[in-house]
Amino acid sequence: MLRPRLPSPSRAVADERFTRHGVRLLLKRDDLIHPELVGNKWRKLAPNLRAARGRAVVTFGGAYSNHLRATAAAGRLLGLPTIGVVRGQELAGRPLNPSLARCAADGMRLCFVDRATYRRKAEPDTLAGILRSVEATDAHVVPEGGSNSLAVRGCVALGEELRGRTDVVALACGTGGTLAGLAAGLSPGQRAVGIAVVGGGFLDAATEALQREAFGGRRGDWSVDDRFAFGGYARTTPGLESFAADFEDRHGLPVERLYVAKMLHGLVTLADEGAFPAGTTVTAVITGRPDQAASR
Questions:
Q1: pLDDT below 50 — which residues of the chain?
Q2: Whether the Cβ atoms of residue 152 and residue 182 lie closer than 8 Å to each other
């Protein structure tokens, strides 16, 4: 069953890259919420699973999608049928990679679609065709990455857990759903910073659109910094790898490379740039673990 550890714990860490600027750093361990639905995956999936009301859940992702893995695990735990629509028809018939094999072991039915169709998956006619092809026209549909209005409202609790505890909250962003909910849950005077882990500069508009869908308009004080994608989605560099390994050595925290490391690197840079006045408490939300698959 889904028995989350809430609120997720926070701890202060002494890091001279922040303390020399008079900044206090907290780590919000959302990666400890649930052993299989880690961090924002639990916060975004839980309201969607309630809305499914026993129906099949259809969702989308790439071949190494953490979101697909979390959805498959939730289906196993709750006894819900799950269907994963996977980008890349050329993958059909090949041996499953460890991420997709885990999905299948948890009972998820996998459907591979070509990349052109996948890009159009949000279009009503294309989506209807996909649902017919998997014989799930009555299914509850969850978008790629799990970000919809239900997910956004589910992430409001993350902001509420941090009220009165911090000045700035930072997290890694891939679709904007967690940031949209987090910012709405914070108190006036607190602000959220999203560190984009994807290129393209679309996350400002995506986050605002999700807030409009969930709340009818923009909520909270938030911004997105696009400078720390390190080459784009699901990519790293030797420099980022060294940074993450050093952070692990300093603080005994396993650092997931594709989201969390980019966010932490961004925070160190922002502190050096003077983005946080002396006396500021900054909370970094740890949304994943290194043992997760390579992408959303």
A1: 293-296
A2: no
Q: Which domain holds residue 125?
A: 56-138
Tell me, yes or no, whether 66 lies in a domain.
yes
Asked if residue 191 lies in contact with residue 277, where contact means CB atoms within 8 angstroms, the answer is no
**Gap between the Cα atoms of 25 and 108, Å rounded:** 39
CATH classification at residue 28: 3.40.50.1100
C-alpha dihedral sign at 48, 52, 54, 55: negative
> What pLDDT sits at residue 295?
32
227 shares its domain with 276: yes
- Total Cβ atoms within 10 A of residue 127: 17
Contact yes or no for 70/38 (Cβ under 8 A): yes
Which candidate, 179, 173, 183, 181, places its Cα nearest to that of 156?
181
The confidence score (pLDDT) of residue 292 equals 56
User: Quick check: is 82 in a domain?
Assistant: yes
User: How high is the pLDDT of residue 1?
Assistant: 61
Longest CA span, the chain? 59
Among 118, 138, 158, the domain-final residue is: 138
**CB contact at 8 A, 85 and 60:** yes
Q: 170: which strand partners?
A: 193, 284
CA gap 266, 121 in Å, rounded: 32
Structure tokens at 71: 């959805």
Q: How many domains are contained in the chain?
A: 2
Examine residue 296 and state whether it is found in any structural domain, yes or no.
no
d(CA 117, CA 104): 22
Residues 173 and 260 in one domain: yes
Q: How far apart are CA 106 and CA 110, in angstroms?
A: 11
Predicted pLDDT at 43: 94
Can you say how many angstroms the Cα of residue 245 is from the centroid of all Cα atoms in its chain? 21
